[in-house]
Amino acid sequence: MMDLDQLGRMLETLCPMFTLVDQDGRILQVGPTLQKLRPDQPIVGSDFLEIFELVRPRTVTTLPALMATAGTKLHLKFHDEPRTALKGLVAPLPDDAGAVINLSFGISILDAVRDYALTSADFSGTDLAIELLYLVEAKSAAMEASRSLNLRLQGAMLAAEEQAYTDTLTGLKNRRAMDHILEHLVSTKSTFALMHLDLDFFKAVNDELGHAAGDYVLSQAARIMLEETRSDDTVARIGGDEFVLIFKSLSSRAQLERIANRLIGRLQKPMVFEGETCAISASIGTALTSQFLSPKPAEILHAADLALYEAKRNGRSCHRFYSEEAPAPE
């Protein structure tokens, strides 16, 4: 006949969460996983009902009552923290020698794995908990991969959208972005001023010093325009050497005149590229929404263009406001 030591060794392989109790309810042996849950607490030698609280059925307070639950699912918790929930099943031994009480985590297995750092080695090879753990791990890995992919896609979409609205050479807004901003400002009936700036003599720089010098001049001009505008203003490159500056909530002609003069003064200073001097200047035309009863984007742009033509007609390197009396370009 198999003795209790042999039974215990067999149970360690088959049921790593078992407890072997004698006829008085004293724990004779526990499975390695169960002991791992209380590594500093000597479970062996303790009374079963001192270690575990019977949640259901609540009427079980003695070993005879516990033995009477054979074949009935028990709901238990540890008396001390963490009070991990457990499921149990009692199998009495022959000749009233005691009982094997096999325990499992049930739906609390994920909490147990987290709280006690359990691995697949802590479970029986046939335990369905192993499959559950693999499924949870696979799901977590899939969710992490999905989250990472979503972040990459969002980043790519933002980068693509930014690129669609950005002039690649200067980093300024492009014409598409300017059109979008103008539509928004007009639709919300916002007050703003629009400057149309053209670089004078830029073609000569390109023709005489090459496109690399021209690109350098455009980049430097863009930097100057950004430095002379506010963070919520818009600076856009809309053509080869043409720029539009939009000043939201600005209608002071004196202030706009000062800004235009600073831009003209800085842009007419010679720029040196690879030892060669690049000489340009700037002509600027400005239109204000206050000059129109019901402004439209195309109308404001055309008005600023007329003012720019007037500035060029007056010798370049100067600034003019739109006026209805100004002559149209030939």
TrEMBL record:
Family annotation (Gene3D superfamilies): 3.30.70.270, Haem NO binding associated domain
Keywords: Hydrolase
PROSITE patterns: GGDEF
EC category name: hydrolase
InterPro entries: DGC-Regulatory_Protein, GGDEF_dom, HNOB_dom_associated_sf, Nucleotide_cyclase, Rev_trsase/Diguanyl_cyclase
Highest taxon of the lineage: Bacteria
EC numbers on record: 3.1.4.52
UniProt cross-references to PANTHER family, sorted A to Z: DIGUANYLATE CYCLASE DGCT-RELATED, GGDEF DOMAIN-CONTAINING PROTEIN
Protein name stated in the entry: Cyclic di-GMP phosphodiesterase Gmr
Organism phylogeny: Bacteria, Pseudomonadati, Pseudomonadota, Alphaproteobacteria, Rhodobacterales
Gene: gmr
